[in-house]
Design goal:
InterPro entries: Aminotransferase_I/II_large, Kynurenine-oxoglutarate_AT, PyrdxlP-dep_Trfase, PyrdxlP-dep_Trfase_major, PyrdxlP-dep_Trfase_small. With 380 residues, the chain is an alpha/beta fold. The chain is 40% helix and 15% strand. It has two domains: 122 residues, Aspartate Aminotransferase, domain 1 (Alpha-Beta Complex), CATH 3.90.1150.10; 226 residues, 3-Layer(aba) Sandwich (Aspartate Aminotransferase, domain 2), CATH 3.40.640. The protein is globular, with a radius of gyration of 20 Å. The structure holds 4'-deoxy-4'-aminopyridoxal-5'-phosphate and glutamine (GLN).
C-alpha cells in the first residue's frame, strides 16, 4: 500500500536528532530548550494536592475557569488589555497546540501566512497541513532586525495570517515598541490575523519591556497570544499553555480545540491557578535568567566565539566563524562527538537552511553545567 505523505519534506526535528546524539555521546546538553533544574516545590505540591483533592476527571473544554480567570488578570495587570475568561482564553497543551489550533481554525488552502525566518519549527508544518502557503521574510544575523517596508511588500490579497515570535527563538531578539507600532500600522484596515508566539514573555533582559501584541489595541483585535507555562515555570514536560484572543476568533479556535484535545490535564490546571496568583512567581524570572545569561556570556569572553548578548529567551547565539568555516550542522556534530557539548545549528531555523556559522546554546541550566560547558568553549 502506498500513502503519499502530507509532509513529504519534513524529517525528525533537529531537537530530537541533536538530543539523541548528545545522549549517545554523553555530552553536556545545551541544545533543546529546557531547564536542568527543578521547578518550585510549592508548584509540585499543589499538583499533588489537586490530585488528592479529587480533581482527576475532565476539566471544562476551554480550561478550568479559575485558571482562565488568573490568566486574564495577569494579562490585564501586565499589558492593560482585558480578555474575558469565559470566552477569550483557552488552556492548551503547551503553546504548540495553541499555535496548531489557531492555524488550523483559520488557514484555508492557498491562504498565505507570513513567517519571519529564522523561525521556530512548529509553524510551517501546521501551515502546510492546512494547505496554506508560507511567505517568508528573512531576518539576517547578527541584528535580526525586521525591514518593515519589505514586510509590507509581502502582503497580498491572499494574506490570511502573520506569525511573530517575541522574545525570539533562536536569535534572542525582542521586538521593540517601534516594531510593534510598525506592524500595527501595516495590518491596520486589513483582515489579516496575527499569531503572536510569546512563550518567552517573562524572560526579557536589561530592564526592557516585553511588548505583547495585547498592548496594542488594533493588534489585539486580530491576535492570538500564545503562551507556555512549561517555559515560565521550568516544567516543559507538563506541556501546558494558553491562547488569548477576542471572542469572535476564540469561538472558531475552540471549535477545533474541542475535537483535537477537548480539554487539558485537570490537576495541573488547578495547581497553576493557585501558583499564578502570586505575581513574584513569574516577575522574578527576568532577573533570574539575566544572571544566567550574564554568567554564560562573561564565561564566553576571551574565547574564539563571537557573542552578542541575547535580549530575551533562554538562548544565546555564538558565532564560530573565527574558528572554522565548516557548515554549522557539521560543527555542531563535531562539538558533540569530539568535545561532548551539544548545541543547535541555527541553519535548521533559517530559510533554505542558510548557514550563518552560528550555534544556539540554552543557558537554562545549573551553574555547574554552564561552568563545564564554558570550560569546553574556552578550549576550542
Ligand atoms: N514557540 C517557541 C518559540 C518555542 O521555543 C517553543 C518551545 N517551548 C514553543 C513555541 C512550544 O512551547 P510548548 O512547549 O509550551 O508547546
Ligand atoms: N522549544 C524548544 C527549543 O527551541 C524545543 C521543544 C521541542 O523539542 N519541540 O529548544
Amino acid at each position: 500500500m502506498q500513502h503519499p505523505s502530507k509532509l513529504p519534506n519534513i524529517g525528525t526535528t533537529i531537537f530530537t536528532t541533536v538530543g539523541n546524539l548528545a545522549r549517545k555521546h554523553n555530552a553536556i546538553d545545551l541544545s533543546q530548550g529546557f531547564p536542568n533544574f527543578e521547578a518550585d516545590n510549592r508548584l509540585l505540591d499543589l499538583v499533588s494536592k489537586a490530585m488528592h483533592d479529587g480533581h482527576n476527571q475532565y476539566a471544562p473544554m476551554p480550561g478550568y475557569y479559575g485558571l482562565r480567570d488568573v490568566i486574564s488578570q495577569k494579562i490585564e495587570t501586565l499589558h492593560g488589555h482585558s480578555y474575558h475568561p469565559e470566552s477569550e482564553i483557552t488552556v492548551t497543551v503547551g503553546a504548540t497546540q495553541a499555535i496548531f489550533t489557531a492555524i488550523t481554525a483559520f488557514v484555508h488552502p492557498n491562504d498565505e501566512v507570513i513567517v519571519l525566518k529564522p523561525a521556530y519549527d512548529c509553524y510551517e508544518p501546521a501551515i502546510a497541513l492546512n494547505g496554506g502557503v508560507p511567505v517568508y521574510l528573512e531576518l539576517k544575523a547578527p541584528s535580526f532586525a525586521v525591514d518593515w517596508t519589505a514586510f509590507k511588500n509581502l502582503i497580498s490579497p491572499k494574506t490570511k495570517m502573520v506569525i511573530i515570535n517575541t522574545p525570539h527563538n533562536p536569535s534572542g531578539r525582542i521586538f521593540s515598541r517601534g516594531d510593534m507600532l510598525q506592524l500595527q500600522e501595516v495590518l491596520r484596515r486589513t483582515n489579516i490575523l496575527l499569531l503572536s508566539d510569546e512563550v518567552y514573555e517573562h524572560i526579557v533582559f536589561d530592564g526592557q519591556q516585553h511588548e505583547s501584541a495585547s498592548r496594542f489595541k488594533d493588534l489585539a483585535s486580530r491576535s492570538f497570544i500564545c503562551a507556555s507555562f512549561g517555559k515560565t515555570f521550568h516544567v516543559t514536560g507538563w506541556k501546558m499553555g494558553y491562547c488569548a484572543a477576542p471572542k469572535h476568533l476564540m469561538d472558531e479556535f475552540r471549535k477545533v480545540h474541542q475535537f483535537n484535545v477537548f480539554s487539558v490535564d485537570h490537576p495541573t490546571q488547578r495547581a497553576m491557578a493557585e501558583y499564578l496568583n502570586t505575581k513574584e512567581h513569574y516577575t522574578h524570572l527576568n532577573r533570574f535568567y539575566q544572571e544566567k545569561r550574564d554568567f554564560f556570556t562573561k564565561g564566553v569572553d576571551g574565547s574564539r566565539f563571537i557573542c552578542k548578548p541575547s535580549q530575551g529567551t533562554y538562548f544565546q547565539l555564538l558565532d564560530y566563524s573565527n574558528i572554522t568555516d565548516e557548515a554549522d550542522t557539521d560543527f555542531a556534530k563535531r562539538l558533540i562527538t569530539d568535545y561532548k557539548l551539544a548545541s543547535i545549528p541555527i541553519s535548521s531555523f533559517n530559510l533554505n537552511n542558510r548557514d550563518d556559522k552560528v550555534l544556539r546554546f540554552c543557558f537554562a541550566k545549573k551553574e555547574e553545567t554552564l561552568e563545564r560547558a564554558l570550560d569546553i568553549l574556552q578550549g576550542i
